[in-house]
Amino acid sequence: MTHETVKVAAVQAAPVAFNLAKSLSKVVEFTAEAANAGSDLIVFPEAFLSAYPWRYAFDATIGAREPRGRKWFAKYHDAAVSIPSPEFDVLSSTARKYKVYLQVGIVEKEGGTLYCTSILIGRDGALLYRHRKARRWIALIPTAAERLVWGRGSGDGLAVADTEVGKVGGLICWENYMPAARLALYQKGIEIYLAPNADDLPSWIASMQHIAKEGRCFVISVNQFCKVSDFPVDYPPFTPEHHDRKADGSVWVPDDILSHGGSCVVGPLGTFLAEPVWDKEEIVYATLTMTDLTEARMDFDPVGSYSRPDIFSMQVNTKPGTNVSFSAQ
User: Fold this and answer.
1) How many CB atoms lie within 10 A of CB 86?
2) How far is the C-alpha of 42 from the C-alpha of 313, rounded, in Å?
3) Checking DSSP bridges between strand 218-223 and strand 225-227, what pairing results, if any?
4) Sign of CA dihedral 117, 172, 217, 178
5) 2 near 217, Cβ under 8 Å?
6) Which of 7, 46, 167, 213 is catalytic?
7) Per-residue pLDDT tens digits for 288-317
8) Backbone angles phi, psi at 153, to 5 degrees
9) Which one from 173, 217, 226, 264 is the annotated catalytic residue?
10) Full-model pTM
């Protein structure tokens, strides 16, 4: 049975970029803090394990690749998470130890390909879903230059987990601008919509309010608060000799902010339960009153009273995105 109220926590922080062990330790520390504050569901930003590679396409240009970029891609691969793996076991045991639902944005590796993935782990440590912003198990498509670094997802990952705190699912960053993907989640009855992202523009906040009001669901938007100092000192874009510069043409310095945050929680009528937080590390808390969902749907239900299946229809291909299959025949 769904709880009458659910306390949620959005962790606005940065990982130790390209360092999986230290970033895992931060997940454990923030989870412990949020759990001790009474949180039922704890949500981390996109690519928290172990970096959103700000301002770097790994030295790839049209028609050319550079050795330095390949070396940094290998470092990025080394700092990614496999499922299963000892690193995933740390996440699983953390959720189990603190008896929380834990959503973490990871860079997932399978073979030689990386995926931007959101995983939801249950109170018992079991993997409830894996949403890839790139290939199978959800995730649909990375944005812009991300497509060079991350693979693509497929429809079998458009998942909504039916948990004791509600029906939980979501999309990653600009996937949230895909109306068909949102509609698929609404049809699955999503109640707590998770939106890990890397967008700190004010217009993003308006989108989160729109989705909450459109879907008549709670939305948890969580972004990193990240500085240059969160990256290795030799990370190419931020070294003095690199061509990358700030908007004013000056070189990057350690205290420069890369992502200002803006994490927030929105109720099913589009109003804030927790206002956006900017320019600091913080755990953003909110208490969700689940009866608000029913009240909000009195006058609008996107897949019920306000839908027109006699006019509009949509088909979702949930086939796994596997290139090669083997048969005993």
Assistant:
1) 9
2) 35
3) unpaired
4) negative
5) no
6) 46
7) 999 999 999 999 999 998 999 999 999 998
8) -90, 180
9) 173
10) 0.94
Integer CA distances (angstroms), 50 to 20, 58, 163, 164, 318, in order:
5, 16, 27, 29, 29
Active site residue 133: yes
7, 26, 109, 133: the active-site residue = 133
Residues paired with 41 in a beta bridge: 8, 101
- Using one digit for the tens of pLDDT, what is the confidence trace for 254-297? 999 999 999 999 999 999 999 999 999 999 999 999 999 999 99
DSSP E strand boundaries for 134-238: 160-163, 166-170, 192-197, 218-223, 225-227
24 near 90, Cβ under 8 Å? yes
Residue 22 structure tokens: 């230290």
**Do the beta carbons of residue 122 and residue 150 sit within 8 Å?**
no
- CB distance 306 to 19 below 8 Å: no
pLDDT at residue 328, as a whole number: 85
Report residue 269: phi and psi, to 5°.
-105, 10
Contacts of 303 (CB under 8 A, 6+ apart): 183, 186, 187
Q: How many CA atoms lie within 13 A of 236 on its CB side?
A: 18
Is 173 annotated as catalytic? yes
